[in-house]
Structure formats: structure tokens, C-alpha cells
């Protein structure tokens, strides 16, 4: 079901091939299949791996799709280049998990001008919603708020020092979680000592936490990490500093992937707010609806839970990711 390429698009492919910017994988061109280009952020976290697997499973040949997958290594220029490559290849639809909120206007307009619908998943963009068909994802602000309410309820009555490991700078996940968390602890006795990005990775979380520990030592009483992976990286730094995670430093994170839930069950994390990565089926359904000309909403929010140690012990054996 691939489109016939115009001269300009064909030139675009040649240029991309020369600069080595073609998508990671290509399809065989079965005309009965819906060709979808999926521009993923990268592979920064356990959540991201589960999200990629969910989309690959849903956008399968068995389900009527030919998937062209690209992971951009958390670099927005690479992600935009992948989207341009999808436009030049004349795919039927484009799915994007946008790394950052800003910077999407031009390429989304190019997709619109080429008549290719864009379905956003996971994170949001600041571009006008005329430029994409729909979005399915999570309420990041509410996730941050839920984490902040747990901190406020448990520590907000007494002066308590907290540090924050932020997600990728400029991503809607990091921006909205920060806003929700700040609102929830506003007016309490929580003192935010420091807040820096760990880029949603274990390495980033470890390095930034090492810096926090060097600077503030045992003054740190609570850690809020914008995702499990940064929290897991921070565990190494905390243990190396001779402190006990979950006891000397209480830890709240977001995601609830298996490794995070294991840390919660083991008492090294104290609370996790869920962020559901299994968006593939909804994305596949929306692609089909949009291409069939059916009306869809501009936004679909997938609900999240939140877990204590007891929940983690109960849920771990059946946790799918
Ligand atoms: O956008 C969702 C966030 O991106 C997840 O919380 C994080 O783990 C991922 O990298």
C-alpha cells in the first residue's frame, strides 16, 4: 500500500541514502500491508524497551502492517531525520514518540503536506494539534503529582531534604512530572536541595546521584527519580557511599518496570508510580481508524496505578515487562 513517490521525494531518498540517514530497517513492500514508519526515542530505559516491543508486536505483518522502525538514540535531530525519511519513502502513516516537546512544527507540516497522517504516542509536542491526527499516552503531570503526594503525606510535616533526578531535558515526560510533583509538595516542609537531569538512563542516574552525595552527603533524606532506571542507577551510588537505599534515603520513582518493582519488593525503593508502556494495540487501532477516515479524538490517556512494597511482592510474578 506504499504511495507513488514524486520527484522531490525520490530525490530526498537519494540524499538520505548518501548521508546514511535511512531508517534502521525496511520492509519488502507487500501491497496489502499498511506501511508505518515508527520513530522511537531510543533505548534509554526498561520502559522504552517494553514500549518498543509493544509497538513491534502490534504493528506486525500478521496484523496487516509493514513496520519501518527507527530508534534515534535520544537525539532529536536524528528523530526528525527519520521522520523525513519516512515521508520520502511514502509510508502510509507515521508514528512518533517525540523525544522533546519543541521543534516539531516544520517536519509535521511536511508530513501533512505529503498527506501522511502522524499518530503520536507516549510523549506530547508543543506544535499545533492540526499537524497530527491523534495522540495516545500517559498523564505525566498526574504521575508527578502522585509521587509528590506520597512524599508530602509521608515527610511533608517535618523539614525534609530531597533531591530530584529529572528525565530528558525538554521532554514532556520530564517537564510535566516536574510540574505535578512541585504542585504536590508546595506548602509542605519538603526542601528541594537539588534537581538535575539523568537523561532517563541508569548511567545518568548513577553519575548525578554520585554528585549529589558528594555535595550534600547524609543531608539527603528522600530521592525522587523521574523513572525507575535512574533510581536503579542511584542505588549503586548510594550503596557506594555506605548508605542504605530505602532506609537512609527513601526513594520514589516512576514507571514500575520489573527491575524497579524488584527494588520495591526488596525494600530499596519505597514507592513507584506506574507509567504504562503497553501502547501498541491502541496505536495500531488508531492508525487503522485514521487511514479509514474514521473520526478519532485528539488525545487518549491510558490510566496509571501506584505501588507499595506489598503490591510489588504480589504483582512481580505476573509483571509482563
Ligand atoms: O516518556 C516516558 C518515559 O520515557 C519513561 O518514564 C522513561 O523510562 C522513558 O525513557
Automatic annotation (TrEMBL):
InterPro entries linked to this entry: Peripla_BP_I (IPR028082), SBP_2_dom (IPR025997)
Protein name as annotated: ABC transporter substrate-binding protein
Domain of life: Bacteria
Membership in a protein family: Belongs to the bacterial solute-binding protein 2 family.
PANTHER family with a match to the protein in the record: D-ALLOSE-BINDING PERIPLASMIC PROTEIN-RELATED, GALACTOFURANOSE-BINDING PROTEIN YTFQ
Pfam families linked: Peripla_BP_4
Main location: other
Stretches of the chain forming a coiled coil according to its record: none
Record has Phosphoprotein as a keyword: no
Keywords: Signal
Organism, as annotated: Antiquaquibacter soli
Residues covered by the Periplasmic binding protein domain: 37-294
PROSITE patterns hit by this protein: PROKAR_LIPOPROTEIN (PS51257)
Subcellular location, record wording: Cell envelope
Signal peptide boundaries: 1-22
Amino acid at each position: 500500500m506504499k504511495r507513488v513517490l514524486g520527484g522531490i521525494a525520490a530525490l530526498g531518498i537519494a540524499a538520505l541514502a548518501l548521508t546514511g540517514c535511512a531508517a534502521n530497517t525496511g520492509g519488502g513492500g507487500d501491497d496489502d500491508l499498511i506501511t508505518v514508519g515508527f520513530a522511537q526515542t531510543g533505548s534509554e530505559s526498561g520502559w522504552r524497551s517494553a514500549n518498543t516491543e509493544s509497538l513491534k508486536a502490534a504493528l506486525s505483518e500478521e496484523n496487516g502492517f509493514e513496520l519501518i522502525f527507527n530508534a534515534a538514540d535520544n537525539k532529536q535531530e536524528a528523530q526528525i531525520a527519520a521522520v523525513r525519511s519516512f515521508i520520502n519513502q511514502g509510508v502510509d502513516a507515521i508514528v512518533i514518540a517525540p523525544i522533546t516537546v519543541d521543534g516539531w512544527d516544520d517536519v509535521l507540516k511536511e508530513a501533512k503536506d505529503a498527506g501522511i497522517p502522524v499518530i503520536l504516542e507516549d510523549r506530547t509536542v508543543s506544535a499545533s494539534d492540526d499537524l497530527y491526527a491523534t495522540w495516545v499516552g500517559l498523564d505525566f503531570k498526574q504521575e508527578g503529582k502522585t509521587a509528590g503526594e506520597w512524599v508530602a503525606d509521608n515527610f511533608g510535616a517535618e523539614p525534609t531534604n530531597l533531591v530530584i533526578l529529572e528525565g530528558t531535558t525538554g521532554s514532556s515526560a520530564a517537564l510535566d512530572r516536574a510540574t505535578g510533583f512541585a504542585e504536590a509538595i508546595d506548602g509542605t516542609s519538603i526542601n528541594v536541595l537539588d534537581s538535575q537531569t539523568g537523561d532517563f538512563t541508569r548511567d545518568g542516574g548513577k553519575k548525578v546521584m554520585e554528585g549529589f552525595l558528594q555535595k550534600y552527603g547524609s543531608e539527603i533524606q528522600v530521592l525522587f527519580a523521574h523513572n525507575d532506571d535512574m533510581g536503579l542507577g542511584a542505588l549503586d551510588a548510594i550503596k557506594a557511599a555506605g548508605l542504605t537505599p530505602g532506609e537512609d534515603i527513601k526513594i520514589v520513582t516512576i514507571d514500575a518496570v520489573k527491575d524497579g518493582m524488584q527494588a520495591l519488593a526488596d525494600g530499596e525503593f519505597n514507592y513507584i508510580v506506574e507509567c504504562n508502556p503497553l501502547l501498541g494495540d491502541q496505536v495500531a487501532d488508531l492508525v487503522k481508524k485514521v487511514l479509514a477516515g474514521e473520526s478519532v479524538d485528539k488525545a487518549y490517556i491510558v490510566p496509571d496505578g501506584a505501588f507499595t512494597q506489598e503490591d510489588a511482592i504480589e504483582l512481580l510474578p505476573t509483571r509482563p515487562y
